Amino acid sequence: MTAQPNRLRRNALASVAVAALVATGAAGVGLTQPATPVQAQSLSKNPIETPDHPPGSFASVVDKVKPGVVAVKVKLDDSADTGDDDGPGQGRQVPPQLREFFKRFGQGGPGQGGPGQGGPGEGFGGPKRPGQRGAMGSGFIISADGYVVTNNHVVDKAKTVQVTLDDNRTLDAKVIGKDPKTDLALLKITEGGTFPYVSLSKAAPRVGDWVVAIGNPFGLGGTVTAGIVSARGRDIGAGPYDDFLQIDAPINKGNSGGPTFNVGGEVVGVNTAIASPSGGSVGLAFAIPAETVQAVVDQLRADGRVARGYLGVQVQPVTKDIADGLGLDKAKGALVDHAEAGTPAAKAGLKSGDVIESVNGTPINDAKELSRKIAGIKPGAKVELTYLRGGKSDTATVELGALPNDTKVATGDRDTARDGQPRLGLSLAPASEVGAGSEGVAVMEVDPDGPAAAKGIEQGDIILDVAGASVSRPSEVAERIRSAESSGRKAVLMRVKSAKGTTRFVAVALNKAG
Hints:
Blueprint: H1 59-65, E1 69-76, H2 88-91, E2 102-103, E3 134-141, E4 147-150, H3 152-155, E5 158-164, E6 170-179, E7 184-189, E8 210-215, E9 223-234, E10 244-247, E11 259-261, E12 267-275, E13 284-289, H4 290-303, E14 309-310, E15 313-317, H5 320-326, E16 334-339, H6 344-347, E17 355-359, E18 362-363, H7 367-375, E19 382-389, E20 392-399, E21 401-402, E22 426-430, E23 441-446, H8 451-454, E24 462-466, E25 469-470, H9 474-486, E26 491-497, E27 503-509
Antiparallel strand pairs: 1-3, 1-5, 2-12, 3-4, 4-7, 5-6, 6-7, 8-9, 8-11, 9-10, 10-13, 11-12, 12-13, 14-21, 15-16, 16-17, 17-18, 17-19, 19-20, 22-23, 23-24, 24-25, 24-26, 26-27
């Protein structure tokens, strides 16, 4: 078969040389005075140590770890719905603009068919084959007594599970536990004996590190591909605790649940998703990092389920505008929208407008990181939170609860327009006077060209706080805005409740007010 140059060819094992480019002027121009010198530092000045396993061959690594990798074959329960639109793990959705690209191996993809769609040999998100009740994937053995890690979406709604070892033995296995939120599952080989196994890495890989993926793509067990770690901390919208490694080792349908190894033969990630316009390996691959895998597997092995810590706050990222509104130097941390009554956060005194900066001394960069950090701590544990309130730093000790399975959201009221004094492109009225609740100021009209509309404020929203103070009348909103202007703030921060009852902070730039 003739290769297709410049399209699909990848030179995954090529050495990369980095050279510094220093501008010295153009020949023949005839300048009598040199141009302003360019301050440049050679990136090749200090030689880089040769890797322990040069990219010339990964054979030694493969020989070491391949016996610990298995193919996973599943027969689905007859009650499995193979035609829904939920992603693997029952409802792990991605943003609409990415839905057509994100595919799950062996089971369809988020927004492209749920668990069981396709079946062995079927393309990603392709037409369903009536009566076909099978799925395939990959996995790896983590203990001598036969515990196996794979993806939840590979074994979700499984009637029977079998694993095929590197020596071609096919053995029955049972599902010990599943965690849809991270798309991980733990199996146990039912036959007695000892098995070759691999270990999870205790150190996170660096971007640029070489990795080797081994799995069962398209049912071809024992397939090896190689590449590098392209990025860390990827959030692809697949679940609440997304923290993926992005790798460029070719990954295909059937690789789901398979391991990605570092050059030392340790598992650094579990392959779980790709973004691809074609549904194949020409795209981006994502793996669950070993740190997450270890935490989840430990709980599944001990209890058969995962219990996550619960703080009881609604949070959002601190954007630059919000940082300006709060008078912060940096846009970092998790901004508390609301602390639910009776929750650990409320009992510890956390309030709306607090910015959580760290948990047990570990800095928190954004709201997503706070969610992952708290969820990774067992219920009942005490954590120390550092937070900012009114520009001053404080700490609180919180005993975490257990994350509830269901979250109930109250429904807010919506109302019709009424005249009010506009500010920032808004017409406002007391919420209590227009049947929109007992607190806050109702947004009656929004100038579509105004700064508030640009920040997503809509008719029917309720403004609860402005610049950290509760408001109940339009005049109070105007007063708080004038106070923020006089103090030199670049933006005013408002806490807004939507018609659906959810609250959020919105920072509106003051220099656009009119």
